[in-house]
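Course assignment 3, question 2. Fill in each field.
Student: A.L.
Task: Predict the tertiary structure for the chain below.
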Amino acid sequence: MDVSDAATEPQRHLLDFDDDTLITIATHLSDAADRCCLAITCQFFSRLILRDAEGTIWAPLVNKLIPNARSSIAMYRTLSTVRTVRWEQPALKVARMSAANFHSQFEGLSGAAMCQLGQHILFHGGTQNGNAGPVSGALMRLDYDAESGELTAWPANVTYLSDVKTSFNVRLDFNSESHELLPTISASSANVAPTLENVRRRGHSLTATNYLRTADGGTQLALLIGGWGYIDIDMNPMLLKEGTNEEQEKGYQYSWSKPETNGALPAARAFHSATEVSEGLILVYGGLGRGRCCNDVCIFDVAKMTWFTSAISVGGAPRCVGGRAGHGACYFPRPGGGGDLLLISGASRSSDGDAHQGSVDVLEVTPFGDHSIGDPNSANFIHEGLSTSFVHLEWSHDRAWGNILLPEVRTGTYVTFAKSVMCWSGIGEGHAPADTLHVIDVERKTVREAVVEGERPLPRGGAVAAMLSPFEALVFTGNDHENEEEMVAPHVMKLVLPE
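Answer field:
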């Protein structure tokens, strides 16, 4: 065999496989970039992945994400690595309240939270005028019409559900015959309902969970965790649910409730992140506590309504050892389970003052099916009976993440497109907003400035984002302490797709 024969040998072996085997190889590659590379190895893969409109590999995936899109190498590259985005400004329509009232409540609002519950985007809380307040407890429903380019904001009607709280009283009575103090135990129950003061928050998180899902695939439950308000706020979650049929008939679209929970509560904090890393498991990281940043990792198990704090230890060490507050948190699930949680920028506070961060830490989450897998005696193995799964947590040792340097900001806005994270604006060291838009390529572990089409929104801190589709996200509110009226205008960040 000469050299030319040897060079073609791997390709000839590859083509010796039958079509079903080649299809299996292609379907097991989940990343678009890998499939793109595979498509240029032989004509079969090129037809199977790129050119066959009726194929089972690429075209159905594209059509599911983007109806009527044309499968091509350009589309592959766009979804694999984001390069260009376009800003658009939808018209804002206010329903069931006056425009003047809406503007008075939402101008310069920051520190709010937003998530998708069911088929609607919900916007909650926040504060005006920075730390000065007032702090809002309002819940707004946002509906976006892509055809008309119009965003409608509705004040949501909510009810506060009471929970039965049982208290026990112990009284010691002296028994004259035995000359002993004997206890008498009495129990009393009362209905305790949360109020608006319980949900007035800023710097909180509002996380929809996949633990309960509707028939159409929407989420039924969101957890409000932490933050600051007018009363002392602990880390016990408030539950936000879509109203039952009976509640809807009474005019209530959603309900707030405060359940009893188990386990030791994490320390109170605001400007933390709360991310669902497995069905029904909410991972809380960082945040600003009493005069300092928190650097701990906690997990809340929705099914058991239980906090896991002391049982959790994370392997390895993060780059930002002092913790982060006002950071971004973006989770990328792996095809086989588990995933990578990116913790981005933010600020660390200590007795030496604030230190803004431009680095990225990655927390690797690996599920275990039962106690028989892994070492239950290891420090970073959670083994207290999480109902949904067991997870192993490890700070990534991959040095490539250390090469990612972003603007040093807190309360920036973070949007996930495919395997990329868009990092927009935020407040820097000098309390001025950064007019920047960078994209982190998660597969390649690189960062660069994004190409921007359309008029950029004014830079700001504390804006929140929610996905409208796999390639467009709503960005709303925020504050730059100057142009508060203009901060009310919503914007949509769109991934620019090939023609």
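Instructor remarks: The two ends are 47 Å apart (CA to CA). The longest strand covers residues 163-175.
Grade: pending
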